[in-house]
Amino acid sequence: MFKLVGPSDETRGMSRTALIAVAIAGLFALAVVAVARLGLLPDLPKRPANLEVGGVLVDTLGLEGRAVFADPGLGRITDLHPHGFDGSGCGLVVGQRGAAWVGGDGCVPRRISFEADGTHVDAVDWDGDDAPEFLSRGEWCCLPFLLDDSGRLIWQFERGERDAVNDTAVLRDANGQTDLVVTFNGGSGLLRVSADGSERWQREDGNVWQVATIDADGDGRAEIAHSNAAGALVLRDADGEILSETRPEGYFSDFSTVAGMTPPAVSHVEDGRILIIGLDGRTRRTYEKGWAFDQAEPRIMVLHPEGPEHGPWLVALLSSRLFDRSVLAVHDASGHPAYVAVLEEPCQAIAPLGARSFWVGCGSHVTAYDIP
Q1: Would the N or C end of the chain have less CB density within 10 A of its end CB?
Q2: How many CB atoms lie within 10 A of CB 38?
Q3: Each residue of 294-319: pLDDT tens digit?
Q4: Cα 22 vs. chain centroid, distance in angstroms?
Q5: Which H or E run includes 13?
Q6: Is residue 158 packed enough to be buried (19+ CB in 10 Å), middle (13-18) or exposed (0-12)?
């Protein structure tokens, strides 16, 4: 299930395997683009016209970004923790190839390189010691794996006869047990496994596109939320039993949890609209503007720049590796767009810095934004 490894030739072999897998995926992507340009893939979605040219489309705030960090050696940035992760006073920037501890009072900057290149890499507290481990969540081309706080490979998932991996999330149950929930393409459903490779359960489902763990009812216990081939939002308990299965508006596939929103919610993009969906599957709010695009991977959070007694502002980062573009949008408490910009690269990380500020990770650099 998990292949446990140590600092040996085997880890180096696994690192080479991961690098080869990423290289094959990259070559395949280049081949798809080349074939598309030859007109042999007429059904491949084309970049929307409103995303062709980067720049600010709406700005009623006078919002300006300031550079925080840049390091091409980290690869594409996929996770941000502006206030740190381990009490060091440093912000944590995580990329596909490494991580960096940056800025902050008392911070001693440092940087590590990962033994293996990842896909989407998140910082996680796997063993409860407050120091980050790094989870590469995997996707169809590549298996999930875990790295320790120095970037050394600990283990890699072995899927056996199952279909390709779609996504992975960390689950910490009420007993303090930390496991992974791995989801699959095809009919392999989803699987909960422990770090020693023990399979706790497997549940059947079709094309489980994406998964997240979330405290759905405020009892301190994590539930499992995922999408599937039917476009359903499925909520399961830590034992994998279905608590609810609903059909949100539109086709529910790529989604994100909405950071900072109470009660918890998820979001996805449908017909050019950002939909905020409660865990009961009902649409709480719709943001309808023509700059949103359906192939977007959403990353959504809310801020309270006017104070907690006022309504939340929504900050949306919509990214597409296919189109090589992103949209950053800030909506005020009334739902009107106060800032919209097209960014000429896929941006895959966003995190709150304060009630009025946030970080955005694009490519291998981080920009801070402060709402005036």
Answers
A1: C
A2: 8
A3: 778 899 999 999 988 888 999 999 99
A4: 18
A5: helix 9-37
A6: exposed
